[in-house]
């Protein structure tokens, strides 16, 4: 496997194959450095170890200032519109947010408010979150999963939650978390392949 990082895009090839899967990882963190960003990057890297992929990481710390005051998609600046198109074109979405007031961050939701209602139909979405302790882990089931159910996305059964104790600073230090990330990536790929082989129109429920 080889990795090439350019302008936030990582291209992975396995045994010389051209990358067939577009993986977009979205971090809802409002801070840099960020445990959430470290988590979604680690999940994306785990996927890249197992399949040929093209990875783009979208961080709200980069696009947030351009996104925050916009009320309509046709008023968004070009750099944010480019990220929305990447989200809509992805074969696999990895989305993560820190727990903020018992939910995901407001800017994370604001970003997905601009995503086309039917653009994520049948798209595999791997859910992730970070929080101060294990008591926040249900954000995945109670907040993130319902959001992507609205889009008729295929939310993957195994999400990844990490608490502060799983990190040394902003580096993942927990063997248990590393194992869960690896398992999530392993289980995601068959569903990514299945979804990529089916036109979204076949899955659409209006």
Short description:
The protein is α/β, with parallel strands linked by helices and 206 residues long.
Beta-strand content estimate: 15-25%
Tell me the CATH architecture. 3-Layer(aba) Sandwich
What structural class do the secondary elements suggest? alpha/beta
- Binned, the helix content reads 25-40%
Report on this structure:
With 206 residues, the protein is of the alpha/beta class. The chain has a single domain, classed as Flavodoxin domain (Rossmann fold, 3-Layer(aba) Sandwich). Helix content is 37%, strand content 24%. It has six helices and ten strands, in the order βββαβααβαβαββββα. It has helices at residues 35-48, 60-67, 78-89, 106-113, 139-150, 175-196; strands spanning 2-6, 9-13, 21-27, 53-59, 92-98, 124-131, 154-155, 160-163, 167-168, 171-172. The strands form two sheets. Strands 1, 2, 3, 4, 5, 6, 7 and 8 form an eight-stranded mixed β-sheet that branches. Strands 9-10 form a two-stranded antiparallel ribbon. Strand 9 and strand 10 form a beta hairpin. Helix 1 (35-48) crosses helix 6. It is globular. It starts with a strand and ends in a 10-residue tail after the last helix. The model is unreliable at 1-8 (pLDDT under 50).
Topology, pairings included?
Layout lengths: L1 E5 L2 E5 L7 E7 L7 H14 L4 E7 H8 L10 H12 L2 E7 L7 H8 L10 E8 L7 H12 L3 E2 L4 E4 L3 E2 L2 E2 L2 H22 L10
Parallel strand pairs: 3-4, 3-5, 5-6, 6-7, 6-8
Antiparallel strand pairs: 1-2, 2-4, 9-10
